[in-house]
């Protein structure tokens, strides 16, 4: 169990290591845990800590040179002592935060007949006709603010898209490795930077007036966003979950070809000037990626290793289903809660204060709570939000 003391030590360490004025990409803070923190707030801050553990594992650079040069920041961010501290905390955070989700997914993995599972899964996902969040936005006069929040929350993962899966690829495991590598190079635009999926996503962010700098909005990431990011990295940063990684790809590539099609249509209808290439590209290429995962990865691996790895693949797919569903339901619940708050003011506002959940004790008379990119509500209204909501107080 990670204690509040562990988190406080980590927070102090990360702040010290980051040094003064770190660029956003290296700004690896975690929030302070207040003495009277509620359970949801503690879980949120633990997920921040796990996010920092995973982010320490891959290369990021600021888009512009910092005033004092880049090397000092780079040295601090990837300092070996700092990395070792993060790595030593990681297994306990994972066991506590992601372990229960993994156990639930394993319980749904059945007999391990993954080919029969694929035969059910693909038609099921492809029969999905709409996205509940986008449906809610179609009839919503504040759709722009809600959509900007969707983009901001998704940026946690998509600005380094496929970096998690790249971590699962090095080594030597036969022909499936090369199929996975072909998918990976598609994600990286086949080496054409302008076609790299994260670069397409940056263009979408900019076309909605949002920053495209990695980590820029991390103070506004909510718990569901962190759970999604951390569950994916939990799979790919642990080689022992290799077959669950394959399950992630099976589910994600298939679900994504539908959801990105709905986003392409939504943008074409309501935001025709926005850059929608990210979504249009996925609606097309993920059809191929599903086929490659099924024919060139899942099938030969199961032929080689039998049903015990079939169960793992299904577990990874079901874990992915659960965290995708959780993030979709969370976004949808926020639309309703925010729009019905009498004190709602839309738009990105001040959010330099500490994080709060609806259960966090606070002075409710004057404080305002910023929720992602949607806007702010009074602390009194926020107390009636769904329990999973996390916002930030405006600076005191
Ligand atoms: Fe992609
Ligand atoms: Fe893909």
3D architecture notes:
By secondary structure, the chain is mainly alpha-helical. The protein has three domains: 4-97, no CATH class; 111-339, Heme Oxygenase, Chain A (Up-down Bundle), CATH 1.20.910.10; 345-393, no CATH class. The protein has helices at 4-18, 39-55, 71-77, 80-97, 99-107, 114-126, 132-138, 143-158, 163-167, 175-187, 197-207, 223-236, 242-270, 277-305, 307-339, 379-382; strands spanning 345-346, 355-356, 368-371, 375-378, 391-393. Strand 3 and strand 4 form a beta hairpin. Helix 2 packs across helix 4 (80-97), helix 13 packs parallel to helix 15 and helix 14 packs antiparallel against helix 15 (307-339). The longest helix has 33 residues, at 307-339.
**Low-pLDDT regions:** none
Bound molecules: fe (ii) ion
CATH superfamily of the largest domain: Heme oxygenase-like
Gyration radius over CA: 21 Å
> What's the total number of strands?
5
What's the story with the biggest beta sheet? 5 strands, antiparallel
Widest beta sheet: strand line-up: 1-4-3-5-2
Question: How do the SSEs run, as a string of H and E?
Answer: HHHHHHHHHHHHHHHEEEEHE
Percent of residues in beta strands: under 5%
Describe the global form. Answer: globular
- The total count of helices amounts to 16
* Residues in helices, as a percent range: 55-70%
* CATH level 1 class label of the largest domain: Mainly Alpha
């Amino acid at each position: 169990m990670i204690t509040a003391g562990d988190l406080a030590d980590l927070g102090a360490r990360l702040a010290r290591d980051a040094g003064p004025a770190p660029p956003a990409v290296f700004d690896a803070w975690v929030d302070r845990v207040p003495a009277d923190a509620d359970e949801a707030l503690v879980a949120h801050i633990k997920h921040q800590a796990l996010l920092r553990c995973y982010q320490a594992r891959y290369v990021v650079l600021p888009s512009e040179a910092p005033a004092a040069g880049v090397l000092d920041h780079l040295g601090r961010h990837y300092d070996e002592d700092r990395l070792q501290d993060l790595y030593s905390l990681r297994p306990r955070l994972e066991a506590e935060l992601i372990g229960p989700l993994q156990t639930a997914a394993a319980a749904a993995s059945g007999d391990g007949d993954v080919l029969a599972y694929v035969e059910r899964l693909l038609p099921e996902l492809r029969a999905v006709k709409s996205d509940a969040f986008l449906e809610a936005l179609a009839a919503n006069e504040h759709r722009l603010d809600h959509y900007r929040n969707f983009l901001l929350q998704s940026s946690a993962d998509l600005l380094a898209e496929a970096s998690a899966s790249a971590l699962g690829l090095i080594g030597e495991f036969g022909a499936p490795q090369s199929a996975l590598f072909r998918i990976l190079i598609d994600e990286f635009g086949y080496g054409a930077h302008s076609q790299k999926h994260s670069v397409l996503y940056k263009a979408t962010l900019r076309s909605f007036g949002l920053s495209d700098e990695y980590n820029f909005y991390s103070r506004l990431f909510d718990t569901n966003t962190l759970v999604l990011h951390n569950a994916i990295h939990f799979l790919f940063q642990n080689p022992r979950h290799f077959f669950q990684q394959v399950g992630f790809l099976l589910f994600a590539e298939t679900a994504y070809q539908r959801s990105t099609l709905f986003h392409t249509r939504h943008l074409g209808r309501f935001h025709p000037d926005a850059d929608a290439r990210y979504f249009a590209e996925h609606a097309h290429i993920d059809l191929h990626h599903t086929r490659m995962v099924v024919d060139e990865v899942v099938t030969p691996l199961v032929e080689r290793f039998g049903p015990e790895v079939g169960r793992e693949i299904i577990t990874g797919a079901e874990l992915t289903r659960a965290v995708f569903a959780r993030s979709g339901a969370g976004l949808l619940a926020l639309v309703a809660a925010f729009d019905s708050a009498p004190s709602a003011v839309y738009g990105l506002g001040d959010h330099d204060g500490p994080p709060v959940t609806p259960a966090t004790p606070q002075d409710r008379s004057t404080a305002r709570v910023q929720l992602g990119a949607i806007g702010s509500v009074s602390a009194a209204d926020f107390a009636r939000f769904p329990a999973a909501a996390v916002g930030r107080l405006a600076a005191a």
